[in-house]
Write a structure and sequence with these properties.
seven-stranded parallel β-sheet; 7 strands; about 15% strand
Amino acid sequence: MTDYPKPPFKKQAQPVPGSQKKMDPYPDCGEQSYKGSGRLEGKIALITGADSGIGRAVAIAFAREGADIAIAYLNEHEDAQETARWVEQAGRQSLLLPGDIAEKAQCQALVDKTVERFGHIDILVNNAAFQMTHKNFEDIPDDEWVMTFNVNITAIFRICQAALKHMKPGGSIINTSSVNSDMPKPTLLPYATTKGAIANFTAGLAQMLGPKNIRVNCVAPGPIWTPLIVSTMTDEDVENFGGETPLGRPGQPVEVAPIYVLLASDEASYITGQRYGITGGKPIL
């Protein structure tokens, strides 16, 4: 709990979507620390936003637990190749799937290419997200609002629909929500609104898919040190990021990955329709 860096952090603005390798301090995605124990042996996982941050940490953890990984991402090719390297170093297969999930055709393509390579999907992790910071409501562009919804929630709907026909009983869908789902930060209004939608989508879909024996849960991270932060927040927000939590620091991606492993595993056979906060002590309702 005390090993990871605390703010203040230095100014390090990046263009969207950001590059992990340029961050200081470098996020810990479990590259050197996560130890697997075969909990996902032989499973196939499709993870969006798997090039860096939480997505990379989940990909590394899943691979070390025995899963093959389809790595979906926008255009951060170097980061994605690094994730693939760690997956393959764990002795598992990787598949790189670049493209914009704001486009309906790309959502279908992710599933089709994963199934073409691996035959089916056991675990779907909808993790990719977009956000931008705005101080004033009237400054939010209409097209940015629409894009935020397309990436953060509409894509989840589309990917789940496409993947469902390739998922067998025992499958697991895990969506990344946020502490913003019920504690919305006003300067992240479009993002926070979609994260609330993800929480409700998860709870409803879990009830619909229960008879099919497919579980649906979501994880609600608090402030986690990822490229999304340095590419979409102000210098002041980055400098103080995570300092307001009871633990006084942002979380590292590796600290979020274990709950995804649990929810993906057969050990969570009676867990569905739930939201799990990984927030450094900030409560969620």
